[in-house]
Amino acid sequence: MSPKLPTIDQILNIAEFYGMHLNEEDAASFRGLMAGSMASYARLDELAEPKLPVKYPRAPGYRPSLEENKYNAWYWKTDIKGSGEGPLAGKSVAIKDNICVAGVPMMNGSRVLEGYVPEVDATVVTRILDAGGTIAGKAACEDLCFSAGSHTCATGPIRNPHNLEHSTGGSSGGSAALVAAKEVDMALGGDQGGSIRTPSCWCGAYGLKPTWGLVPMTGGMPISYSVDHCGPICGSTEDIARLLAVIAGPDGYDPRTVVAKVQDYVGALSRGVKGMKIALMKEGFGHPTSDRTTDEKVRGAIAEFSALGATVDEVSVPMHYDGPHIWTGVILEGAAEMMIKGYAMGNNWSGYYTTSLQEAFARGWQSRPDDVSETVKLVLILGEYMHRRYHNRYHAKAQNLRVLLRKAYDDILDAYDLIAMPTIPFPATKIPPADCSREHYVDAALNMQQNTCPFDVSGHPAFTVPCGRVGGLPIGMMLVGHHFDEATLISAGQAFEQIGNWQSR
After folding, report:
1. Closest CA to 243 of 145, 127, 164, 142
2. Average pLDDT in the 426-437 region?
3. Which H or E run contains 167?
4. Rounded Cα gap, residues 231 and 379, in angstroms
5. Residues noted as catalytic
6. What is the domain partition of the chain in residue ranges?
7. Which residues are in the Amidase domain (predicted)?
8. pTM assigned to the model
9. Phi, psi of 276 (to 5 degrees)
């Protein structure tokens, strides 16, 4: 059905919203001027848009029972076979539930998308299937991915395999839990503030946030284009290398990837760290919220690179402390305008639009706004307030400051191969009780990103490697490298992994 011309009353209502003063004669005049544009919209209805390919047959799968879903980490289970040969042959892969898999329900952790079934495969899904991988299902995630805890998911809290009372971290909590529990070999996560690295760190998995623009997000639901990343979560550095090699590289539907530079990630596994220069960043430690034992163990883990032939020096990047403030300015208004008010995809994007996702989210969001999590409500209300009151000033300033933040890290990387620090400054926290206060609920969702979110803004690749336990829970060491130099991170991660079992540290 083609769109209809607005009525006189609708035109007057819109004019009033924008503070214009029109009378009925003015509105009628504008209505007549709109007829030409409406004819273009009518023609658009007659044209067929391109669809992302769906190359492999599949059954729709099923929602697993509680008995089959011990950690509440699955949203949906499937068994979609790929080509049967290639670098991922024999590997089972969980897909974060903000990424489209054709014919399989997608909820993105939120009741407002419940019932949506995509008709397309995301580019990364097609690449995994082409490489011989098997899609084992959709991993549960946080409500619209706006939480770094694991308690905002509409299907219930995602539980840490190391202690069911504790958070997996988020928003890719299901992906990390399934890998840590060895229910799948590999998983895909998304990272806008730490959402690959946080759950990987807290669950004892390996998680790599690639350089911004290396892995396409085509067919995934974004939060904010300038900080959206997709990457691998695995049980070993070797599997990180293999999965990254498959999903990385330019995609004509995602203009960010035009700058992508792919390396030999599998070949990097054997390079070691001899001769590398590693910068231990002072500002990654000693946050007001830092756990002293975590700091000490991560320092000790970084120091072990010296015995492997690397040089380790302590450096200072004072602007790291401003990274979370810059990230806040970028993502709050960005998410409110693009993800929520922009109905999942925003506008003026020159890449691929998953139009069915936009329509489903618009219907769900507008009809059930009370059903989103408290973190999403906070983002929308504060983002809209800042937009109305300060007219995009702070978002724009934060976007400009990202250049200086990136340079601050690059100045260190001019002299070093990578930067090292704790991924999260403390081990996994307890899942808040269902009747907790809103303040506790929100704090538990957002209080751990001091070291992770700055690198979403700067775009540097960041790799969390398990390096020990505190109170029986995993902790992680984060390695940060040059843009499009994931190979060096993989070399260092593999060298550290081969020292010995991190679980005994």
Report:
1. 127
2. 97
3. strand 163-167
4. 24
5. 96, 171, 195
6. 8-46, 66-504
7. 73-489
8. 0.96
9. -70, 150
